[in-house]
Amino acid sequence: DNTGFMCGDYSNKARIVKTTNGGTNWVIKYDAVSDQLNSMHIFSPAEMIAVGGKYDGAEKIVKSTDGGETWNDIYTDIPNKEILITLAFFDQNTGIAAGYDGKMIRTTNKGMNWSEVNPQNYRMRSNSVHFENSQNGILACEYGKMFKTSNGGLNWDSLSIPTTESILNGYNFGSRIYLIGFSSFYRSIDNGSTWQNYPLGRNVYCSEFIDQDNGFIFGNITGQYWSFNTFFRTSNGGLSWDSVSIQDFPYAMKFINPQTGFISGGNTGYNTFLSKTTNSGINWTKHNVSGIYKKAKSISFINENTGWIGCDENVLIKTTNGGVNFQILDFGRPQSWTTPKVFFRDEYNGWAAVNNPSGQLLNTTNGGLNWHIQFDCGTAGISSFHFIDNNTGWCGGYGFVLKTTNGGNYITPVSVTGEMIPEKYSISQNYPNPFNPVTNIKFGIPKSGLVKITIFDLLGREVTNLVNEQMQPGSYTVNWDASNHPSGVYFYKLEVRQAGSSTGDFVESKKMVLVK
Predict the structure, then answer these.
(1) How confident is the model at residue 417 (pLDDT cuts 50, 70, 90)?
(2) Between 465 and 96, whose confidence is greater?
(3) I need a surface site. Which of 1, 178, 256, 321 has the fewest CB within 10 A?
(4) Do 395 and 153 form a contact (C-beta atoms < 8 A)?
(5) Is it the case that residue 486 has pLDDT exceeding 60?
(6) With helix as H, strand as E and coil as C, how does 35-81 read?
(7) What is the DSSP letter of 380?
(8) Are 479 and 374 contacting, i.e. CB atoms less than 8 angstroms apart?
């Protein structure tokens, strides 16, 4: 089949184009001034739908039932209009569209009518996600909102805390929960039933707890950038805090043990720096990064010598001698992109969250020299992530939490408001499609079983196996990086077999196109 469609925007116009010869030539089928279209779904050769937005910030949905010859606008009664960025259908009728500021809407009749998905909980920023182990974690959000899970993120319960200020960071250790607000430290020793508030008298910029006893916070009085820089430390779980004045103004912090830690800062007009302490923050040794004047957003160290600093404007800084010398790298993104989080599990393998205009989770296998996309969240943005080992991690953003159990090779969307167990087996059309070189494939399984996802070429030869393992019920996303494969048509097949079954309980294949 040589017929295909693409949507997008060109010169402030929403545009849909069609090809009937495999992409050699394209014909405009839809053109609308002051609009944009960002994602599209094909139900059949005759029926299709596209979503996007208007340049005044409102959503836009158009649908065709005659093969793209004519298009009709679909209007919703949903308040809080936002531009829609991505669209995914789970079957012929049921789909989700998501966009700016955590906007998420759902249809059960091919897009003719839409309802908002959990608007009371989704539309908030996730500032921090922290897991003590594979089951128990907490999610810190805007407006004093906190959520707790005891089953690996499948379900989340809201915690009542004595503040409406945004929680910047949260940490859980057994029955203890520690929260860092804009200017206060909150402590619970009974799983959030009761709280103690410890005002710090400073606005907090970065913090870290490495265990239930040892924690560190940097704060400052607003407008007094150099006179009131204060470094706080506790060795008794926040019952009391020691403080020391420091000369530097950090935005990121990382401690590898109670004695050894790093802080990093910098901004326009101020040299990016890395300072190191070996006595719990009493004294610091500072090293400037020559020629770099960027704000540091995150630090990751695998030992006292080797570490990385993620900065604004696509800058990644690496050191292998504790900050004495630096290597300047980047994430392969435009300068406008920001980096709220970097994490390395060893000298080669690491992740980075980058944002603007979309939120992407990146992965490197060569110490930060090269990066590839593992997951694209659209404009929702990724604000934090946390790994408890080499395979299991979570990341949070505007109204979502994602989970991986194999180092990011497939990712599970996790609901903060309820269980996400599909009612039936499904595999969605890959996104983006056509793609180059990475695409995401979403699938759902209502029962546990042996799950296989295999890629084939146009001649039916097996190219690679993306998943081949026993999996629990849930909704998942797996990505395929086709950097080492030629352009062309490929097929992906989902097979699910329950224990004791000799034949597949579910088998479905779909087509995708790699264009380089």
Answers:
(1) very low
(2) 465
(3) 1
(4) no
(5) yes
(6) EEEEEEEECCCCCEEEEEEECCCCEEEEEECCCCCCCEECCCCCCCC
(7) G
(8) yes
Instruction: Kindly report each contact of residues 298-301 with a partner whose C-beta sits within 8 Å and lies 24 or more positions away, as own/partner.
Output: 298/252, 298/339, 298/340, 298/341, 298/342, 298/343, 299/252, 299/253, 299/254, 299/262, 299/263, 299/264, 299/274, 299/342, 300/254, 300/342, 300/343, 300/344, 300/350, 301/254, 301/256, 301/262
Q: What are phi and psi of 143, to 5 degrees?
A: 60, 30
Q: Where are the domains positioned within the chain?
A: 4-117, 426-514
Q: How confident is the model at residue 416 (pLDDT cuts 50, 70, 90)?
A: very low
Give the residue from 305, 230, 319 showing the smallest Cα distance to 273: 319
Give the model's pLDDT for residue 400. Answer: 66
Confidence of residue 418 (pLDDT cuts 50, 70, 90): very low
Contact 74, 112 (CB under 8 A): yes
Q: Is the pLDDT of residue 410 over 60?
A: no
The counts of H helices and E strands in the chain are: 1, 46
Task: Say if residue 265 is exposed, middle or buried (CB neighbours under 10 Å; 0-12, 13-18, 19+).
Answer: buried
Question: 342 vs 472, which has greater pLDDT?
Answer: 342
4-117 maps to which CATH number? 2.120.10.30
Separation in Å, CA 431 to CA 459, 461, 480:
23, 22, 11
Amino acid 380: pLDDT: 54
Question: Are the beta carbons of 83 and 105 closer than 8 angstroms?
Answer: no
Q: What is the residue type of 379?
A: T
Separation of alpha carbons 514 and 516, rounded Å: 7
3-state secondary structure of 102: helix
Task: Say how many C-beta atoms besides its own lie within 10 A of residue 63's C-beta.
Answer: 19
Q: Calculate mean pLDDT across residues 287-309.
A: 93
Q: How confident is the model at residue 355 (pLDDT cuts 50, 70, 90)?
A: confident
Place of tokens 């990341």: 395
Q: How confident is the model at residue 224 (pLDDT cuts 50, 70, 90)?
A: low
Confidence of residue 420 (pLDDT cuts 50, 70, 90): low
Report yes or no: 131 and 139 within 8 Å, Cβ to Cβ: no
79 falls in which pLDDT band (50, 70, 90)?
Answer: low
Closest CA to 37 of 45, 48, 26, 27: 48
Torsion, Cα of 37, 41, 43, 49 (10° steps): -20
- In angstroms, the CA 65 to CA 43 distance is 10
Residue entry with tokens 């405009």: 28
Distance CA 147, CA 136 (A): 11
